[in-house]
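Query structure, 304 tokens:
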């Protein structure tokens, strides 16, 4: 059966595309089902019998169920489908892209997304000020507000236990799942099909940003997606974009926790928003770090 499925996937790009979509949507449906079922049976939150509860996702009583469902969704909708797809299409390549990372590029990836913070803030502020036609703009603002309310609820962390849970749920699982799907499956597949890595990187970055349905932050997320795409392209190793992605997500969690508990000044969240010089320096240092990462990978390739 597995051999027949592999033969089917080798027939065309369309077959592979339909298969990964089937895995993703099946995984999403099963994850939601089990999340709701476990919530009803073990957490006492009746998401099956009272669907109206989902009309207000900011309800604090729903948070345990929403956290559980979120974790299951990343596992079932992204991580497991991507690993299954990559294993069936090219298990050797899957092992290759998960070779052990080394220290210097790891430090560059961490520094890259820490240094990028003011520039990303500046671009996000510019993006959110776009004059969008009323109908589309209202829809976008509505989606942004809905996602923002849920994120604020998740980021309410009165204790260290919730900080650790959020580092897993908001930091690690999205970094691992999204990089597997977007850089591992989509970018890798487009690059092999088009033979143009730059086109593959930017198309993947656009799709990566679009599927978040947070269009008032579309541009900065696209740029972050492109940066992670180049980290993967230059290194051939998925760990580096995963580390960079986790750094970005974990910073948001840790800063939020620090601000709530008075150990971090709230002004730091707005770094770069109204400071063009800081944003420009942030961009300059990001480009320098990307250049250093690229040169390091080239030197490694020459040695090998």
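Result returned for the query:
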């Amino acid at each position: 059966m597995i051999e027949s499925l592999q033969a089917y996937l080798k027939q065309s790009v369309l077959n592979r595309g339909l298969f990964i979509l089937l895995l993703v949507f099946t995984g999403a449906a099963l994850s939601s089902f089990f999340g709701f079922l476990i919530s009803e049976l073990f957490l006492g939150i009746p998401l099956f019998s009272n669907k109206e509860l989902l009309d207000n996702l900011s309800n604090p009583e729903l948070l345990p169920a929403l956290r559980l469902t979120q974790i299951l969704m990343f596992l079932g909708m992204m991580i497991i489908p991507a690993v299954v797809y990559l294993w069936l299409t090219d298990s050797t390549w899957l092992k290759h892209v998960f070779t052990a990372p080394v220290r210097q590029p790891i430090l560059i990836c961490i520094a890259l997304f820490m240094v990028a913070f003011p520039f990303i803030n500046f671009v996000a502020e510019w993006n959110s000020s776009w004059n969008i036609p009323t109908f589309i703009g209202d829809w976008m603002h509505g989606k942004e507000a809905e996602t923002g309310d849920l994120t604020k609820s998740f980021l309410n962390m009165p204790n260290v236990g919730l900080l650790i849970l959020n580092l897993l749920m908001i930091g690690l699982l999205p970094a691992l799942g999204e990089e597997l799907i977007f850089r591992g499956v989509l970018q890798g597949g487009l690059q092999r099909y088009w033979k143009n890595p730059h086109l593959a990187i930017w198309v993947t970055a656009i799709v990566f940003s679009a599927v978040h349905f947070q269009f008032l932050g579309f541009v900065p997320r696209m740029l972050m997606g492109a940066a992670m795409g180049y980290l993967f392209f230059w290194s051939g190793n998925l760990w580096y974009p995963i580390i960079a992605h986790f750094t970005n997500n974990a910073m948001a969690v840790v800063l939020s926790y620090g601000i709530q508990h008075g150990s971090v000044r709230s002004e730091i969240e707005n770094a770069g928003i109204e400071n063009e010089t800081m944003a420009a320096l942030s961009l300059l240092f990001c480009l320098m770090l990307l250049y250093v990462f690229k040169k390091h990978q080239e030197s490694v390739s020459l040695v090998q």
